[in-house]
Design a protein that fits this description.
heterodimer; A: about 325 residues; alpha/beta; Rossmann fold; 2 domains; 4-stranded parallel β-sheet; B: about 450 residues; mainly beta; Porin; 16-stranded antiparallel barrel; about 5% helix; about 50% strand
């Protein structure tokens, strides 16, 4: 019995390096850095800054609730092989990234830590005064973490990513600087259009389903009158919906913003009761082929469309 | 920031427009104030200004006053080594995460005997704690009570400094067998542990021992994991099971036991190997095989005419399991389908019954041989708050003649938030040679603070 058990144990342990060895991918100076990002926005920006020095994969697809992305085995595998893991941070992904990193047990990531591009974000809003579940379910101690919808995000994240890539590949520092400069130039061109949109949008009022558009609205001067969720992460209750739709009528709020993952039916019902319309906006870049600049363009077009506004014709910038 | 935007004026204007009802909608939250002014100018600030550093609005650098500790003033030779410095001087920022889980039900059951009716059951009240000891070590504990007794179901230390994807745990933790046995009953997606697992392994099976765990990637989309463990003891306890007492007609309870000290070859041994892989962009499939071998144990229960407890030892038992799980999630992550099942085969000395309890000829009648059973389930979540499921378990009961028992459970789970669950379930069991039983339950589960157990996929 003992011999049999020890043999079994030895077989299992002995199989470890065989299976592991098949997957080992040592990264030398000539290979692209394996980078895994939580959201497609970051994947796009890493590609812009890293160019051919990086091979980027992303976990979220683009329609999920950023606080609870469903993980698959491939996410575990890609994280285990990553040289760099990039997330927004600010507790945006705290529901699923810690478990992913702990399960992947990638010593490079554990040693250096993931790159949290949101650290040091200077324009945090909705920072809770006290931390208490009575204030909601999605409580973010550092403030609202949905900074990927702010026009400053591309450049802010790009600089953080450039700095980390320079530290990992110092010999390519010049290339990363150049790539970032070119990217920021393109961002500046887009921002002119976003600024024009902001002039039309300023002072308009919206209700959100979940407070994930705060930076987008804030940057465009849109007044956020309330949210369908009585508290962040708490589904709307009939009583709260009755109150808020009444308030919307009184204030003349004609738009409810919601993300792809929130129940559109609830937003549409509330909009109907308030004499408003529900507008679905993306909450992040689409993973397959999407760019952060394209995402921000879509957001501004979506906001303009919510009030049937249009910008003057323009030539493509990107 | 443009100076022309009159924030206070905006607030006053809106406040006057809003009136009392809308203020009630928002309470005193600052939603009526735009979160930021139009600010779409390109970043032109110097880099240093954009990067104020990595400061967080937390005080991780206590002032001397905050760091003052009531113990560990000065360590002199011979004093406990723990007083060598930092241990007594950190602030509460380094405390572990504590949590409380409460799980109970209001239920009606007709267990097939003369007893039926309503009951309020406290399934479990649980206190958990977890935290890192150092970069490579962390630990956790779980204390549970069903209002009758308090049990330490988990108290383990984990080490992950050996190599990538390898970890070791030592202490008291749940058996790694199949998809379910690591999981506490109050965390299951089903109202109860499937009948075949309860019968062949136990409702909850914490053991004290040592486990080696490793996983490895295979290709781009598959992960393979295995664990092996040895235990000095394993205990089975079964709070929260509605039909615990339905077979009292079979005589006094007989409990398995193991000796405190045994040869290494006589320790309880478990192993599990599992692989999971992507199936397209929205699905995954997991296969697993598990083993638990108990090479030396005994049964005890009942008494003879002199009051001595009956017992038998030198027994052995092995349980083998195969599991399969398929999961699908919609691309927005709000809807899902999960299908799964497990087949179990038990071999060896399976159970014992007391014959002639309290008489001079009292003895334990041993049931040896093999038995098998399975469970399967399907669950559908149509949004983030609601799911329905059906679970069926069929098994050869570990009793003389191995009567077939089938248990079916239909359940609806509603999550008002992720920290709370309300569940309604209907359960039916059908057993050869006995009356059918059924139950209805309304289950309420709440999590206060951080809730976590070291479940591994």
């Amino acid at each position: 019995m003992l011999t049999r058990r020890i043999l079994l144990l030895a077989t299992l342990i002995g199989a470890t390096p065989l299976v592991s060895g098949a997957s080992a991918l040592p990264v030398d100076g000539g290979d692209p850095l394996n980078v895994v990002t939580t959201i497609p926005d970051l994947a796009d920006i890493v590609r812009e800054v890293g160019g051919d020095e990086v091979k980027v994969r992303c976990v979220a697809k683009g329609r999920e609730n950023l606080h609870s992305v469903r993980l698959r085995p491939s996410h575990l595998v890609m994280t285990a092989r990553a040289d760099l893991f990039v997330q927004v941070g600010l507790a945006l992904e705290h529901g699923w990234v810690p478990g992913l990193l702990e399960s992947a047990r990638n010593s490079k990531i554990m040693r250096d830590g993931p790159l949290n591009v949101g650290t040091g974000w200077p324009k945090l809003v909705e920072i809770p005064v006290t931390l208490d579940r009575r204030a909601g379910v999605d409580i973010h101690p550092l403030g609202n973490p949905h900074i990927n919808m702010h026009p400053d995000f591309g450049s802010f994240a790009g600089r953080k990513i450039r700095d980390r890539l320079k530290a990992m590949r110092p010999e390519q520092a010049g290339k990363f600087d150049k790539n970032l400069a070119a990217y920021e130039k393109r961002i500046a061109a887009h921002r002119k259009r976003w600024a024009e949109a902001a002039k039309l949008l300023k002072g308009r009022k919206v209700v959100q389903y979940h407070k994930e558009f705060s930076y987008l609205c804030g940057a465009n001067g849109i007044l956020m009158v309330g949210a369908l969720e009585p508290q962040p992460g708490v589904p709307p209750t009939p009583g709260h919906l009755a109150q808020i739709t009444k308030g919307m009528r009184e204030l003349g709020v004609t738009v409810i913003l919601h993300g792809p993952w929130t129940p559109g039916r609830v937003a549409e019902d509330a909009a109907k009761r308030a004499g408003a319309k529900a507008v679905e906006l993306p909450v992040m870049t689409q993973r397959d082929g999407g760019t952060w600049l394209g995402f921000m363009d879509r957001l501004h077009e979506g906001l303009l469309g919510a009030w049937d506004l249009e910008l003057e014709e323009r030539e493509d910038q990107d | 920031m443009p100076a022309s935007v009159p924030q206070p004026l905006a607030v006053l204007t809106l406040a006057s427009l809003l009136g009392p009802p809308a203020i009630a909608v928002q309470g005193n939250q600052p939603d009526l104030i735009p979160q930021a002014e139009p600010d779409t100018a390109p970043l032109a600030k110097p880099q240093e200004e954009d990067y104020p550093g990595t400061e967080l609005p937390m005080n991780l650098n206590p002032t001397p006053d905050q760091a003052r500790a009531p113990i560990g003033l000065l360590r002199s030779p011979g004093m406990p080594r723990i007083y060598w410095g930092q241990t007594t001087r950190f602030t509460s920022a380094f405390n572990p995460a504590f949590g409380i889980a409460v799980d109970g039900s209001f239920n009606w059951a007709d267990n097939g005997s003369d007893e039926d009716g309503f009951a309020f059951d406290l399934g479990v009240a649980e206190l958990t704690g977890q935290g890192a000891i150092s970069p490579n070590w962390w630990g956790n504990f779980a204390l549970e009570t069903d209002s009758e007794e308090v049990e330490l179901t988990e108290a383990a230390l984990f080490y992950s400094g050996l190599a990538d994807r390898t970890s070791i745990r030592a202490g008291r933790f749940f058996l790694d067998f199949g998809k379910q046995m690591q999981i506490h009953v109050h965390d299951l997606s089903t109202p109860q542990r499937p009948a075949v697992l309860r019968e062949y392994l136990g409702t909850e099976v914490p053991g004290t021992g040592f486990q080696f765990d490793h996983w490895a990637p295979i290709g781009e989309t598959t992960a393979f994991r295995f664990s092996t463990a040895v235990f000095g003891d394993q205990e089975s306890h079964g709070h929260g099971f509605l039909f615990d007492d339905h077979d009292e007609s079979h005589g006094p309870e007989v409990e398995p036991f193991v000796d405190d000290r045994r040869d290494f070859s006589e320790l309880i041994f478990t192993a599990r190997a599992t692989a999971m892989t992507d199936v397209g962009e929205e699905s995954m499939l997991q296969l697993g095989a598990s083993l638990r071998a108990v090479p030396d144990f005994g049964f005890e229960g009942g008494t003879n005419d002199t009051g001595d407890t009956l017992s038998t030892d030198g027994l052995n038992q092995s349980v083998y399991g195969l599991d399969l799980t398929y999961g699908w999630n919609s691309d927005d992550g709000t809807r899902s389908w999960t299908f799964g099942g497990e087949y179990l085969y038990a071999d060896g000395d399976l159970n014992a019954e007391v014959v002639g309890d309290g008489t001079p000829g009292a003895s334990l009648d041993l049931l040896s041989g093999s038995a098998q059973g399975w469970f399967a389930f399907a669950e559908h979540a149509w949004d983030q708050q609601n799911s329905v499921g059906l679970m069926v378990s069929s098994l050869e009961k570990l009793e003389e003649a191995l009567p077939r028992e089938t248990e079916s459970t239909l359940y609806w789970s509603h999550y008002p938030t992720e920290f709370m669950r309300v569940r309604v379930a209907g359960i039916h069991f059908d057993r050869e040679g006995a009356e059918d039983g059924q139950a209805l339950m309304l289950q309420l589960t709440g999590y206060i603070g951080a809730h976590g157990h070291p479940y591994n996929w």
